[in-house]
Amino acid sequence: MRKECSTALHVQTEFGQKYVLETAPMEVYSAGLLKKRFHWRSINQSNVDYSKNGVTTVIRSTRDSFFDKNDVLHVVRPESGVFRMREQNTKLDLRSIVKVVLEKGTIDEKRRNGKFHRTISFGVKAELETDRKDLVAYGGQHFQGMKEDDVDLFKSSLGSVVDFIWELGADMQRKSGHPPMATNQYRTRKYARLLNALICCNKSKFEIVTIVISLLSMCAVTAHFDVMNDGTNYAY
Fold it and tell me: Quick one: 121 and 169 in the same domain?
């Protein structure tokens, strides 16, 4: 009999806490300070006993949401009231997003792990800054050769999804009793507003958005730290 397998996200904090999030087919999760917290993905058989590995918090795939008082890892899924409330205001054509990623996307060797993979990114990177006072968002080159109507549909769909994810992130912070995200208004004006204008967001304060289409495989992701958009440590 074939055993059911699933993937799990592992996060280990600087204080020795170990979190495991069993991933679900659809979810939005938020993990904090991954620039200083080891994290990785594993392939597991169902009903794993994580306690044997010193795990302090396990978020099973059957939970509809989890709001972490330690602000390490949060997740919401379609069954949760928060997800359903935000989803009502999200209007998108998913096919338009998939089409552009498949046609315009490239391969990120760090993420691929031997499986089919396409990715595109939009945003502003600090290292692209020159002596000019006005920065320019990158990613617009993906629209070259596209019909204007197709570009408009892609932008409105992606912008709607990005705003949806941002608002869910804000809900997670509020539900867990922690401060809001992106309170640095200088950084919002300098970076986020450019991305918003490029992909038609209204509420998001993200600085970079990466869309990945990839086939699931039995390849795990080894432990690593994330890299910030720039080298500056901000207080949020």
Answer: yes
